[in-house]
């Protein structure tokens, strides 16, 4: 497996909740208390990233039916990329770094309300709801999505400084990253050895650009980045995206 020097850092992410039906059943058990911000309006610490990041394309999949639930997700009322101001400013620096290459940032998801995460949990419990299986988890048993770390019952996105993203040309054409966003498979691991050399180079270009401005990658999702240090490391917000 190829391991470029600049890719030495990765994010340990473990969600071990059992297996099969047991994994889903355990989601119904009381969860450890998580600090939350119950405000229904956007805090002043959050901004619309499109107003700061040059060329940003806010695709924002969970506000649409084009995601693994096959419907808009609770809490997403607009296709808007909201981030903490610190994360948005760091992302703007990434965009300026990439501009000479003719590249822009396309955002699949940014801040995620905790109500959206709860919606994911409800969706996971409904084993019969597999409308988007062919596109997003064709080779994965839905009952093991939490156990295998593809979905989490608490998401760092809710802290406001995490973004799911890719690189694109100015016309919105995405670089070939080997898989599409939210493809639940080891092929989505950032350093997966089965992708082509071009696909690997594109992923490494994204890793390097983001790392330069303080973002770390989650190594099981090539699209997932979190600013370090986070402004709100212990707060999970729940205001809607609007």
Which terms would index this structure?
single chain, 242 residues, alpha/beta, Muramoyl-pentapeptide Carboxypeptidase, domain 2, five-stranded mixed beta sheet, two-stranded parallel ribbon, 14% strand
Intertermini distance: 42 Å
Into which percentage range does the β-strand content fall?
5-15%
Can you identify the CATH class? Alpha Beta
Number of helices: 5
Radius of gyration: 17 Å
Structural class assignment: alpha/beta
The helix/strand order is: HEEEEHEHHEHEEE
Number of strands: 9
Low-confidence stretches: 1-34
Helix content: 10-25%
Which architecture would the CATH scheme give at its second level? 2-Layer Sandwich
Which sheet architecture does the biggest sheet show?
5 strands, mixed
Q: Mean of the pLDDT scores?
A: 86
> Judging from the principal axes of the Cα atoms, what is the shape?
globular
Number of domains: 1
Q: What is the spatial order of strands in the main beta sheet?
A: 3-5-6-8-7
* CATH topology label: Muramoyl-pentapeptide Carboxypeptidase, domain 2
- In terms of quaternary structure, the protein is single chain
Short description:
With 242 residues, the protein is of the alpha/beta class. The protein contains five helices and nine strands. It has a five-stranded mixed β-sheet with strand order 3-5-6-8-7, with helices on one face.
């Amino acid at each position: 497996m190829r391991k470029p020097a600049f890719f030495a850092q990765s994010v340990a992410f473990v969600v071990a909740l059992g297996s099969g039906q047991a994994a889903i059943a355990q989601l119904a058990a009381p969860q450890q208390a998580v600090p939350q911000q119950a405000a229904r309006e956007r805090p002043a610490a959050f901004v619309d990233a499109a107003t700061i990041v040059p060329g940003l394309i806010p695709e924002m999949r969970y506000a649409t039916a084009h995601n693994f639930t096959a419907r808009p997700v609770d809490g997403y009322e607009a296709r808007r990329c909201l981030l903490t101001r610190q994360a948005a400013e760091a992302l703007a620096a990434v965009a300026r770094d990439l501009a000479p290459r003719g590249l822009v940032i396309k955002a699949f998801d940014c801040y995620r309300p905790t109500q959206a995460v709860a919606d994911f949990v409800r969706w996971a419990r409904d084993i019969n709801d597999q409308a988007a299986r062919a596109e997003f988890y064709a080779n994965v048993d839905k009952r093991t999505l939490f156990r295998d770390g593809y979905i989490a019952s608490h998401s760092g996105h809710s802290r406001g400084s995490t973004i799911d993203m890719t690189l694109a040309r100015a016309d919105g054409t995405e670089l070939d990253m080997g898989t599409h966003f939210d493809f639940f498979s080891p092929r989505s691991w950032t350093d997966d050895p089965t992708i082509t050399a071009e696909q690997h180079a594109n992923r490494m270009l994204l890793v390097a650009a983001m790392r330069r401005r303080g973002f770390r990658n989650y190594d099981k999702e090539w699209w997932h980045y979190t600013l370090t240090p986070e402004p709100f490391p212990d707060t999970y917000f729940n205001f809607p995206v609007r």
